[in-house]
Amino acid sequence: MSSLHKSRIADFQDVLKEPTIALEKLRELSFSGIPCEGGLRCLCWKILLNYLPLERASWTSILAKQRELYSQFLREMIIQPGIAKANMGVSREDVTFEDHPLNPNPDSRWNTYFRDNEVLLQIDKDVRRLCPDISFFQRATEYPCLLILDPQNEFETLRKRVEQTTLKSQTVARNRSGVTNQEQNIKPQFFAFRWLTLLLSQEFLLPDVIRIWDSLFADDNRFDFLLLVCCAMLILIREQLLEGDFTVNMRLLQDYPITDVCQILQKAKELQDSQ
């Protein structure tokens, strides 16, 4: 480990050990990449995504509350049919008479329960096989499930973000230069939809995607910065796009050739500073 890397880890630790986290300082550090040692990235992401408050003293209670909330979701959504009805006041004898684990009826709640568990087992196997050589997948992690399982509170915010992104994409589409030249009819939805909706996770290797997310999450206007990253990707292959035909350009855009994400982020930062 180089002295520079050790120094960056120390800088993060200094910020994170304060009673009240200096958010701007944390964003400044995180924008240039977060070290993965000691769970720093996990903790920084939680703060940057507002999962944890800035006051360290409340972290323990917040985490306990969120874990209990997650356990509650499990209890509500993974239900053993017989026990569920018994808890609702139906005697176990009546429950067994109505439905039982060996019931072959496709509508049986037990049948559904067992099928769901088979799916969960397969998901567990897939997760264990997913990038086992990366430390991120070698230990247990906690993620906020509230935004996924209770999306109504965030629906309006998400709608506005998607609307804003769509309007900006339409503006780009009207520009006749470069890849949006109407003579080639290369529409942004052919490539940009995947870039934006999946946060570039299909365009680069996972460690590079995580590095990009460090900068996205650290930026106060993270989705605006995502658009700048996409613009930077286009600018960096501009000459190739101008020379290519429809087939060549679609191949370039759907299998992006540049793997140096630091170069892309640097160009995106230049675009941001020039605004």
UniProtKB/TrEMBL annotation:
<dbReference type="GO" id="GO:0006886">
    <property type="term" value="P:intracellular protein transport"/>
</dbReference>
<keyword id="KW-0343">GTPase activation</keyword>
<dbReference type="GO" id="GO:0005096">
    <property type="term" value="F:GTPase activator activity"/>
</dbReference>
<feature type="domain" description="Rab-GAP TBC">
    <location>
        <begin position="32"/>
        <end position="245"/>
    </location>
</feature>
<dbReference type="InterPro" id="IPR035969">
    <property type="entry name" value="Rab-GAP_TBC_sf"/>
</dbReference>
<dbReference type="InterPro" id="IPR000195">
    <property type="entry name" value="Rab-GAP-TBC_dom"/>
</dbReference>
<dbReference type="Pfam" id="PF00566">
    <property type="entry name" value="RabGAP-TBC"/>
</dbReference>
<protein>
    <submittedName>
        <fullName>TBC1 domain family member 13</fullName>
    </submittedName>
</protein>
